Amino acid sequence: MRGGARRLAWLALSCCLALPIGGCYSSDYGRQTAATAAMLRDLAAKLDDYCRADFKTNGREISSEEMGEFYYGLKKARSYAAQTSAHSARQSYRDLLRLIDGYAQMVNDADRYRLSRRPDPGRLEEILARGRQVAVQAQAVLDDLAREK
């Protein structure tokens, strides 16, 4: 085979291999989106527990490093949403974006509250209400995915 024909053969082989991989990625959307929604719901529930415990565990205050878990989950969810923007026409995708925004607001509000070190029942209730809203938003994503099957 000459150089040009060899390159053409490799290009054709690459395209043939890319089609199944792209199809797997696309069909994986539902599973990955459900996992992302569940992750944010579970992290919000854990953050809710920290809020109720006045950001203390085992007699010590929750550190900024420990709060990193919540920011990492947010970063991971945002990255996933950016990678799957081809699904933006789906209701599940639009609801996932709303879920990510709600979770981001909860994390930011909770962290500011933690750093203030001043108990404020009103602000705490707002954060807890945001956590309940995140749970509802996560369920909406899961419900959307069930309808889209």
Textual characterization of the structure:
- The chain has 5 helices and 2 strands; from the N terminus they run ααββααα.
- By secondary structure, the chain is an all-alpha fold.
- It has one domain: Four Helix Bundle (Hemerythrin (Met), subunit A) (Up-down Bundle).
- A two-stranded antiparallel sheet has the order 1-2.
- It is elongated.
- 23% of the residues are buried.
- About 7% of the residues have low confidence.
Quick structural gist:
This protein has 5 helices and 2 strands. The chain has 149 residues and is mainly alpha-helical. It has a two-stranded antiparallel sheet.
Strand proportion, as a percent range, falls in: under 5%
Number of domains: 1
**Secondary structure tally: strands:** 2
**Terminal-residue CA separation:** 46 Å
Could you give me the name of the CATH homologous superfamily? Alpha-catenin/vinculin-like
Form type: elongated
Q: Any idea what the radius of gyration is?
A: 21 Å
Helix content: over 70%
Largest sheet: number of strands, sense, barrel closure: 2 strands, antiparallel
Kindly report the oligomeric state of this protein: single chain
Strand order of the largest sheet: 1-2
